[in-house]
Amino acid sequence: MTLAxxxxxxxxxxxxxxxxxxxxxxxxxxxxxxxxxxxxxGLETFSRTVVxxxxxxxxxxxxxxxxxxxxxxxxxxxxxxxxxxxxxAGALVLMDxxxxxxxxxxxxxxxxxxxxxxxxxxxxxxxxxxxxFGSLRPALDLARAQGCGIFALALTSNPEGFEVQRAANANNxxxxxxxxxxxxxxxxxxxxxxxxxAVVGATLADAGVDLAINGPLLAPGIGAQxxxxxxxxxxxxxxxxxxxxxxxxxxxxxxxxxxxLREAAQxxxxxxxxxxxx
Length: 278
Ligand SMILES: O=c1ccn([C@@H]2O[C@H](COP(=O)(O)O)[C@@H](O)[C@H]2O)c(=O)[nH]1
Known about the structure:
Belongs to the OMP decarboxylase family. Type 2 subfamily. This protein is an alpha/beta fold. The chain has helices at 6-17, 28-33, 40-54, 66-69, 72-88, 103-114, 137-146, 162-165, 175-186, 232-236, 249-252, 258-277; strands at 21-24, 60-63, 92-99, 124-127, 149-155, 196-200, 217-219, 243-247. An eight-stranded parallel barrel has the order 1-2-3-4-5-6-7-8, surrounded by six helices. It starts with 5 loop residues before the first helix and ends with a helix. It binds ligand LLZGTKA7. The site of the ligand O=c1ccn([C@@H]2O[C@H](COP(=O)(O)O)[C@@H](O)[C@H]2O)c(=O)[nH]1 has 17 residues, from β8.
């Protein structure tokens, strides 16, 4: 069955459930705080609990692949189950794997995450455009064909990103702005929202770029990295309705109580709603 375009599915999910992405980041410190071992059993219980708590109510769940890969193939198997269970429970799954390589290799990464028969099939994938936006073509094309989404790093939430992403070409156009222009071209004419998004940190003093890409803007950095939902209007301006604020540790620290995880996520959803209605 062919999926509807990711952008349309995301818009619907955000209208229905609110603008929030919760990251599934099983840090060793969180496993310990939840009373779990830093091992495969802990990884599985942690992931299952987050899915049980949130997959039927938040718009997007974003597993961070690194925390599964550190356990090798058995950790990746937990990731496969986590993705499948989260999708089955109704969440859109954005795989945070930040893949990026020459085009021929990018095609294999795209198949790993965006081909429906793949064990890691996800609704969307984060990618790095720093081998040149054109190197992402196989992933962009496969995502479009399968009703999936792509989120390309534009202005990341970490301070170290500045020297690369704010560097400018001879026409004084920053690298980030060029990425955003490419995304806007991919989203041309898409309704109600394009499927090709950008990662723009909520931690930025201001975006300083044109964010009108007709696509979603994933905004990590809220909570543990210091940003709040109140920062969204300053960073994103008129694009706030297309922002998918992303929170990992500041929700996850409330586990393992399912109720407390749900309440924490709901507080963030309410905070975003307050900002968008202001
Ligand atoms: O610019 C970026 C891109 C991705 N991330 C990822 O988001 C989460 C943030 O976790 P918190 O606990 O909410 O800080 C994590 O998986 C990062 O790899 C980001 O932070 N910034």
